[in-house]
TrEMBL record:
It comes from Aphis gossypii. It is a multi-pass membrane protein. Pfam families: Acatn (PF13000). This is Acetyl-coenzyme A transporter 1. It is found in: Membrane. The keyword Transmembrane applies. PANTHER family: ACETYL-COENZYME A TRANSPORTER 1, SOLUTE CARRIER FAMILY 33 ACETYL-COA TRANSPORTER -RELATED.
Length: 512
């Protein structure tokens, strides 16, 4: 039997058994709880990485160029396959294959939470100037450690749970990471918000929320260190090499295998699809919430809207399981694209009209907010359907003999396509936005030649007269429509290919 040691939570869905075994959580409840806790810890840095752009945009300290730079902080989750073979192959046998990495990685996470907490206030308001470079670097390190923890926990879940309960690994990953993102994003934004607590909970106004952002980082630093210590002392790890009669490909052979998969014609074409499709939605995906804040929606309201979406994200996989399990998941993925484009245009229109509606009162304002939440929910529904159907397709073409390496690779390519398109979208918005000085209509504002300072010097302010967000949304939508016509037949062809065309042939003698 050939098996790669690192299998992600989605890959576990494709393990084939000759005789179906019904899952039974009895005897694994403690392990399920531990996995939920570890996946929750994994989601916290991701959540905080979502919160920081909202916080700095609300403070009116960041440009879209700075937001683009900070978006690089989440790239480790798109690149983790580059070092996953190292994590799988190097370990201390006495300590355990997974604990050899988990213990130091989570201790480092706790330490870096303390470091970030110590400097966070200085970086956010360094003489009214945002230190985006320091923020990006520290959050990149946090997400690098969290992505490494993801590799570790995904692999440990396969040996921690009984064979008949392996399916619980995906549930633990989804629920735990979603809850962690909630704790890092929604909860942090609301807990540190002065306006939220003064408006809804306090009888008399007080400065700050019920906790500072610095205190929140310190809190999680303590949580990481305490939980890691408890896992190190009390959680025993099974000997993987004893428990499973598996063969490890080793570092070099794993990288060579990935390279061989990438050379397959089907994989090459599908890589092009995954790298190009996200450009159709990148403007709205990357900047819609930031644009709402610029238009007058508060960060508290943004966090509250996202809070309403969390139950949808948790329940959706169960609600549309029948839809995503059909024979042609890639076709369902393709058919969802027009709806996502449509809802993207609607959301951009809502953002454009937001300043008008915010000055209204009564039923008109309530109608606007209900429509905003409803359209945003539909847009997120289309996003999640595309994600789930793509995962179903990855599972259908993955080769279980090599632990689903096809799937890991395709998921990484998809994540990378998503990351680069969002980063590029934020940079381009800045370039497509044009401003002019309020006391000189013919005097344009640009940071490249100090025209912003000149405008301020003469008592004017730089005002936007062409907004790059809306220009980019139009460009992306047109691009998406063209993309649909170009790739329609290609996607149908890929869906109809024999599954063997997605696999590489591995001779057993090459594994040893």
């Amino acid at each position: 039997m050939i098996k790669i040691t690192h299998i992600s939570h989605i890959e576990s869905l494709i393990e084939k058994h000759e005789t179906p075994v019904k899952a039974n959580s009895k005897g694994d409840k403690k392990n399920i709880f531990i996995l939920l806790v570890l996946y929750t810890l994994q989601g916290v840095p991701l959540g905080l990485s979502l919160a920081i752009p909202i916080i700095i945009q609300n403070m009116h300290l960041s440009s879209f160029k700075e937001q683009a730079k900070f978006s690089l902080a989440v790239w480790p989750f798109s690149l983790k396959i580059l070092w996953a073979p190292l994590v799988d192959s190097l370990f201390i046998r006495k300590l355990g294959r997974r604990k050899s990495w988990l213990i130091p990685v989570q201790y480092f996470l706790g330490i870096f939470f303390f470091i970030t907490g110590y400097y966070i206030n200085e970086w956010l308001d360094n003489g009214s100037k945002l230190n985006i470079n320091a923020l990006t670097l520290l959050f990149f390190v946090l997400n690098f450690l969290a992505a490494t923890q993801d590799i570790i926990v995904d692999g440990w879940a396969l040996t921690m749970l009984k064979k008949q309960n392996i399916s619980y690994a995906s549930m633990c990953n989804s629920a735990g990471q979603t809850f962690g993102i909630f704790l890092g994003y929604n909860l942090s934004v609301l807990l540190i918000s002065e306006s939220f607590w003064n408006k809804w909970w306090r009888t008399s106004p007080l400065p700050d929320g019920i906790i500072t952002l610095q205190g929140y980082f310190y809190f999680w630093g303590i949580i990481y260190i305490v939980i890691t210590t408890l896992v190190a002392i009390f959680k025993y790890e099974k000997d993987y090499l004893t428990e499973f009669d598996a063969i490890n490909l080793g570092i070099l052979k794993t990288y060579l295998l990935l390279f061989s998969i990438m050379k397959l014609p089907s994989i090459r074409m599908f890589t092009i699809i995954l790298f190009t499709i996200k450009m159709s939605f990148c403007s709205v995906d990357a900047a819609f919430k930031l644009k709402l804040i610029n238009c007058g929606i508060t960060k508290d309201e943004i966090a509250s809207i996202d809070l309403l979406i969390i139950p949808l994200n948790i329940c959706l996989p169960f609600l549309i399981a029948k839809f995503t399990s059909k024979e042609k998941p890639l076709k369902n993925y393709f058919n969802t694209i027009p709806y996502r484009l449509l809802f993207g245009v609607i959301l951009a229109t809502i953002a454009y009209l937001t300043p008008y509606f915010l000055v209204q009162t009564g039923s008109l304002l309530i109608t606007y907010k209900v429509f905003l939440v409803l359209m945003y929910s539909f847009q997120q529904l289309s996003v999640n359907i595309m994600t789930l159907t793509s995962m179903a397709f990855y599972a259908s073409i993955s080769d279980p003999k090599i632990g689903g390496t096809n799937m890991t690779l395709l998921a990484t390519i998809s994540n990378l396509g998503n990351a680069w398109s969002k980063t590029g979208a934020l940079w381009l918005i800045e370039l497509l936005t044009f401003k002019r000085c309020s006391n000189g209509p013919r005097q344009f504002c640009s940071s490249l030649n100090n025209q912003n300072e000149m405008c301020s010097l003469f008592g004017g302010t730089c005002e936007v007269f062409i907004d790059g967000f809306y220009i980019e949304t139009i460009i992306c939508t047109i691009y998406g429509i063209i993309w649909i016509f170009i790739f329609r037949k290609i996607i149908n062809n890929l869906q109809s290919k024999n599954v063997k065309e997605w696999h590489v042939e591995i001779k057993s003698k090459e594994i040893y």
